[in-house]
Amino acid sequence: MDYQTLVLDELDGVLTVTVNRPAARNALSEQTLTELRDLFTGLTGPRAVLLTGSEGPAFIAGADIREMATMTPEQGETFGALGQEVTRRIEQLPVPVIACVDGYALGGGCEMAMACDFIYATRKAVFGQPEVLLGLIPGFGGCVRLFRRVGVAKARELIYSGRRVDAVDAHRLGLVNEVFDSREEMFAAARRVLTDIAANSPAAVSACKSVINTVDGLGVAEGLRAELEAFRLAFTTDDMREGTAAFLAKRTPRFRT
Fold it and tell me: How many domains does the chain have?
């Protein structure tokens, strides 16, 4: 397929998927999410996938706020459902998927990374779920997946505050597997571990992934439905309109108390 916002490169059975919207810091537009969904639907062939963003300040800066700012609740629900579908398709791929994070992985970017089997990061990486600063909540699985990575109390703190954490703190919390000094070192390490994995039974690795996902995912469907409904309702609030408008105007939001 001819993708407009993705760059694909396959080498030795490893498919590197690069979100390529550098002018928008690789933000997840509806088009980008649709292309990711289509790519990961029934993907066969590669023995592993690396998910990354084009080189620059961001891995994936988040969802595209310019698009969200004018969405109705119904459109917000559709947008959230599309993001959730992408993360589920990543999660359900039968091969290992590594997120290679270099730069900002905020909001939807953090959620995309968490859908992968594990995360490698450079020292430039920054993680967070800052949706509350816009009058929103995480809508692509953040409320459901973050606590499974870092624990309930820490997930609540990060989501409620919208606070960002650097790569070192993300590693300490268990969100990131390893931290590297450079982008090149990160990709080299990812390929090394995939070489180790490739030496094992593909069927066994796939089965392990399926079992881990099933055990870890008990209650996920119910959680995602609740999150999606709350995400939809967030689009009915004045805070969402104020938060997105303030972001686009580069001013401090004035939320109602």
Answer: 1
